[in-house]
Amino acid sequence: MEGVLMVSDLSWIQRGVAKEVPDKIKLNQDELKQLIEGAIPESTDNDSEREEGEEEEGEKTGITGTGDVEMDDFEKKYMKGYNEEDDGKQEGDDGMKGIAMYSDQKDDPYVTQHVDSDEEEEKDEIVVRKDDNMVAVAKIDKGDYTLECYVYNEADSDWYCHHDYILDAPPLCIEPVQHDPGNEETGKGNLIAVGTMNSEIHIWDLDIMNTASPFLTLGKKEKKSKNRKKRDNSAQGHSDAVISLAWNRLTPHVLASGGADKTVVLWDLDEAKPAQIIADRGGEVQTISWHPNESTFLLLGTMKGHVQVVDCRDTTGNPSAAWKFDGQIEKVLWNHFNPFTAFVSSDDGKLRHLDMRKPGECLWEGVAHDGPIGGLTLSAITRGLLVTVGEDEMLNVWKVEDSNGGIDKVHSEKLTIGELHCAQFNPDVAAVLSVGGTTADLIRVIDLTKYEPVVKAFSE
Q1: How high is the pLDDT of residue 229?
Q2: Where is this region: Disordered (predicted)?
Q3: Helix, strand, or coil here: 196?
């Protein structure tokens, strides 16, 4: 993704979830030197063998498609520049070259004052207070990919980058997961799932700083013998990029993922493998959302214009309700104030309000933006407070009417961070949200109580 600069996704994490004092990993000098120099492990006897899921020579495999999978829409949206040849180096060959030159600052001739880092860093710089929110941000900066963790405090308006992680593939979507299969005491955790271009899902523990690798990888393709096939589910998963994720709060060990291979995979986090695969959805599964009150109902939207409600208990995979629209579906979102309904945005700038009891119909639809609507978010606290953001650089604030499901625009403004691809409300503060863009500081935290039209509309 040479030349691409953007926040591809972001997500708020509720207060009290993050560990007050995160753990910090300290690499020894040999490990740090290896990371900086990008040492490549010695080859093994299996290196010449084909990976799980590869096709015969001459067929397309991997990100750009597998056999009969059509990737036109996906390639147009995500793949520009990703498969371009560089200098022939493999991913990861360079390690941290260019980022750091010395594994020990004492070896750096330009550093003349050597201070112990533990003495230099005060404890309160890494403390996450009980009234702090954490915000995870997936960032693509040309050839660099990072997952950054910000801290926000409503009382004193603090906003700063707390720590980050270096990723080895472009992050397309992220999703907080508060179920930790490694925590035998409570089962709860502060994890984040990252969907990537390489068909894997990397899960990071946000309570661990300075780690160089994810806590868990789902869908990792393992080497296999030519004469033996695996008979378990350990190698199943997506065959192409993971472009949507949703954690099931009502069934905490379940994570759903939507792929460019047109399938939805339900992952059992305790077993670290798929529990169910919902086959061909008619298009690349761009967006998914679990029902807030019913643990088995999944709402999804595809790049072919399909919107479906799937009951995961139905092994046939037939949708319980379905719609078909022109254009690509960008975002689907349940209305948690009226869970029979949901909001849908698309790349033709249209916003729709749907009722699950009326398949094929719309409660309301209208043009909300000039172009794709990448961000769609509903306040967790203020009933009917809906925000959309789009590639036209506009932020629009809407009021959803209870009586008829209609949607009225109450405020609109152009932000100064380029095209807008994602937005989400703070789960603990009624009118504060963050927006991700493509220029300047890339991220904006917005307090809607500072806008008189919004305050007036929701005080009536």
Answers
A1: 44
A2: 36-70
A3: strand
- Dihedrals phi, psi of 228, to nearest 5 degrees: -135, 145
DSSP 81-111: TTT---SSPPTTTTTTTTT-S-SSGGG-TT-
DSSP state of 370: S
Cβ-proximal residues to 361 (8 Å cutoff; 6+ apart), any chain: 354, 355
Query: CA–CA separation, 175 vs 349, rounded Å?
Result: 25
Q: What does the block give as tokens for 10?
A: 């972001």
Closest CA to 166 of 190, 191, 189, 141: 141
Neighbouring C-alpha atoms within 13 Å toward the C-beta of 27: 15
> What share of residues in the chain are helix, strand, coil (percent, to 5)?
10, 40, 55
Give pLDDT tens digits for 342-384: 999 999 999 999 999 999 999 999 999 999 999 999 999 999 9
Buried b (16+ CB within 10 A) or exposed e, 1-32: beebbbbbbbbbbebebbeeebeeeeeeeeeb
| Token pair for 455 | 């305050």
Specify the 3-state DSSP secondary structure of 36. helix
DSSP 245: E
The two structure tokens encoding residue 124: 């309160």
CA distance 159 to 6: 19
CA separation for the pair 238, 363 (Å, rounded) = 34
Rounded distance between C-alpha atoms, residue 73 and residue 308, angstroms: 19
